[in-house]
Amino acid sequence: MKKVLVTGGAGFIGSNFVYYWLERYPEDRVICVDALTYAGNLSTLEKALQNPQFRFYKTDICDREAIYEIFRKEMPDAVVNFAAESHVDRSIDAPEIFLKTNVLGTQVLLDASRAFGVKRYHQVSTDEVYGDLPLDRPDLFFTESTPIHTSSPYSASKASADLLVLAYHRTYGLPVTVSRCSNNYGPYHFPEKLIPLMIVNCLHDKPLPVYGEGLNVRDWLYVTDHCKAIDRILCDGRVGEVYNVGGHNEMRNIDIVRLICQKLSKPESLITYVADRKGHDMRYAIDPAKISEELGWKPETSFAEGIEKTVSWYLENRSWWEPIISGEYRSYYEKMYGKA
Ligand code: NAD
Ligand code: DAU
User: Probe ligand 1: pick from 12, 142, 220, 281, max atoms within 8 Å of CB?
Assistant: First the structure.
């Protein structure tokens, strides 16, 4: 039996990972640490909270004392760090919290992992650390040796954290791994990101805000495939290594938005072109050869299947996203569980 400490487990990918791990390894204990920022929602973990193998701590990863206390009590074998400020637009508006959580919070987790002899520390990073690729060079892809070249305060903070994680391996011998994944989509995706925002706005017949001309390209991966990739890396990845994760599924934003209109039988006249994001990355595209050849990972869910499942999930789970839209969810934790 293993004890896996998952940070950011009340967010989009972290919660999918919690459910994935509890199902895949029912003997393991999963300890979730999440500060429940605007992006974390405890109702997402409602089913997990009923599982005796699961434990939740409402804690900020920057709070060294509290984090050390959790490590002392739980003695995790592995740490998977999803906790982060993750929205590029918010980082352009207010960068400071990104540096605090994404860099300094990571440092606290690394120090705790050293102090308590964690056997594996995994950092969940992003393809955005590589910057972007030009639209007229479809032959180019990000590999693990592509230079770090960030565009936004968000990606700069994630790249800084990656460097720190790798430095802890080189300097202190901490057994770390890093994954850099492309855009995820699926259940529990916070409705300020492209795909859930478009679904929710369509359902309310509200304008669909497309930045610039909508020609930017992202490489979309169904969230469970990302969870499986992290599982492979945790089990068999080589320490000190970076693994790129992506699905060879490049799509222009405008085509995604049109597809969502079509799936929900809404008119494309809802599409509204708005001012472009500052420093907007043009194209992301991952070369997943390393994880595929070394660890046998490959995406299992096609985009056609994944987007169908995702749209259906939002149709069937209004009770999850409606309180988020209304802001009501912010009082959920206190209402349901009192003060932490
Ligand atoms: P998210 O914003 O949905 O979730 C982040 C979670 O972290 C939330 O539950 C939030 O409450 C928690 N959190 C934030 N600050 C915290 C703090 N100081 N202490 C403890 N918890 C804190 O993000 P996501 O989309 O699920 O992304 C998870 C991770 O994966 C991030 O590190 C992100 O950089 C990375 N990533 C995301 C994508 C994507 O497409 N969403 C792709 C590649 C990598
Ligand atoms: O590539 C991985 C990254 O993917 C992760 O590291 C980030 O945490 C995650 O948020 C995501 O970043 P993006 O900026 O690519 O995702 P977002 O959903 O914010 O935007 C996707 C694309 O859609 C991007 O080109 C901007 C555009 N967009 C976004 C929104 C919210 C719009 O055109 N309109 C919108 O309203």
Answer: 12
